[in-house]
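Rotation project, supervised by the postdoc (A.L.). Task for the rotation student: set up a whole-complex structure prediction and record inputs and outputs verbatim in this book. Inputs entered:
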Amino acid sequence: GNSVTQMEGPVTLSEEAFLTINCTYTATGYPSLFWYVQYPGEGLQLLLKATKADDKGSNKGFEATYRKETTSFHLEKGSVQVSDSAVYFCALTLAGGTSYGKLTFGQGTILTVHP
Amino acid sequence: ETGVTQSPTHLIKTRGQQVTLRCSSQSGHNTVSWYQQALGQGPQFIFQYYREEENGRGNFPPRFSGLQFPNYSSELNVNALELDDSALYLCASRPPLAGADTQYFGPGTRLTVL
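Outputs recorded:
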């Protein structure tokens, strides 16, 4: 089956530090990959996406590259801000059939950024 | 602001009861999906409705059922509630022909089963 694995445990950083959140996936076929962010009390928001191998998604200073050879989609940001504190979810979807539009999520990574 | 609303915000039920959660999508969004997010976990796909018909389902028992209405609202019904049903329930809608990257999530309903 399809699955997404994120690095375990919360991440705590100081403002302006470099961020990496690891994500690996298992999929039958060629998935599209996503990072979603969930701020306290809010719904999920799409942060960035990549639809094929070697694509780089980017938004708001965050980046992730679709690595087919390592089945990974790690999230990075060069300088985090306090406002980036949230829960980050890696997700995938497969095109076609009844899977169309269905998202498979990782367990989420809590990011806390201190001033 | 995604234009997707859910009600109620919070709900407390006891084991064995039935619950109905509601979602109001953006006008024109003819596909709605429901997800269950247990505490500390990622959302899990429950099912998807397209033009008022279920067209995809995750690993959830039949006591989880849904309805989608012509006015772009939808419901998630759960019968015979169990303690493990305690979770945040999210709905997500998308417009015709849109893929997963064009889904708009609501803020969720927090269900607690005692």
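Student's summary: Chain B has a mean pLDDT of 92.
Supervisor addendum: The first strand of chain B starts at residue 5 and ends at 7.
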